[in-house]
Amino acid sequence: MIFKETKIFKISDSFPTKEDIEKLKEAADIIKAGGTVCFPTETVYGLGANALDAEAVKEIFVAKGRPQDNPLIIHLDEIENAEKYCLYKENPYINKLIKFFPGPLTAILKKRDVVPCIVTANLDSVGVRIPENPIAHEFLRLCGVPVAAPSANISGKPSPTCADHVIEDLFGKVDAIIYAGNCDVGLESTIVSLVKDPPILLRPGGITYEMLCDALCEVAVSDAVLSEMKPDDKASAPGMKYKHYAPKTPVFLVMGNDKKVIDFLKDKQTGESCAILAFTEDLKYLESKNVFDIGSKSNPDENAKRIFAHLRATDSICGLLNVYVHISDDKSGLRLAVFNRLLKASAYHIITLED
Ligand code: AMP
Ligand code: MG
To answer: What is the pLDDT of residues 218-230, one digit of tens each?
Structure first.
């Protein structure tokens, strides 16, 4: 692959200053000219290109090493602009979800011909998202075109929740990176398909299953959320069959009553070279070496914000045999999304400690 000169546009903490807007204009010009730009959103950082330019979109797949049958989501500044790219107004469900836009929700809708097949992996539907992050919003407004964007990481690795993760994976492979703060949610958007009856949750995220049920009355849950898809499965959530979010070291999820889990983790710490992602409540029982605090067991927002950064951080520890993650058996609210990402990061390896 050709090494690209990657421009870094550092956005100030007091966004939006005049300089910030100038930088976003320059970044938007790169998109309009067919280039690739990484940008912050409230979920994770995205790697964007003009969704209407098939050649530009191809560069996303190349930079990430992403399989071409894994469709991309298009990002818009306003939901009112969606009608140009998909059958938005005639969808029977979308009105009930309007309150979640802008926000961490992707709606799958019937696509219009103007969206190239490469974006949707030849599907006749397209994922549409309106980010809430003010930098993303202004950037998309200045682009004036829909921006196709998956997460700004090498395919298979944990998603980027800060600009340094993006630099680590994509410097030299993209035309620009908008360098700003950490992502608020820390997990990718919720994806709900509105071309099915009833609508189906394809990926849990910041807009929870319970919130969707409240708005839509009935929501099905894709098998891909909690179970393993085989490479030849015809997935209702294409892309979910691929390896995801995984650090270099094998990951095991550990669940059971807290005392049992802590005893198990202490035992592992004395017996082997391992890293542990633990709840804040566990820390006082463990040796501190290679232990990462994922936040309180009672605070899934905090867990969501931290898991990708911690999984990624284990890659820089030499000689690790395994990574263990203490997980909760509660899957309500945002915990379902945390569990889903950890499940995939661990390739479905769960150790359940019986009472
Ligand atoms: P990423 O951009 O890496 O967050 O992944 C986007 C995911 O959205 C894909 O892996 C698909 O699972 C899902 N997706 C995108 N577009 C569609 C679509 N038209 N139909 C169903 N799922 C989609
Ligand atoms: Mg991704």
So the answer is: 999 999 998 877 6
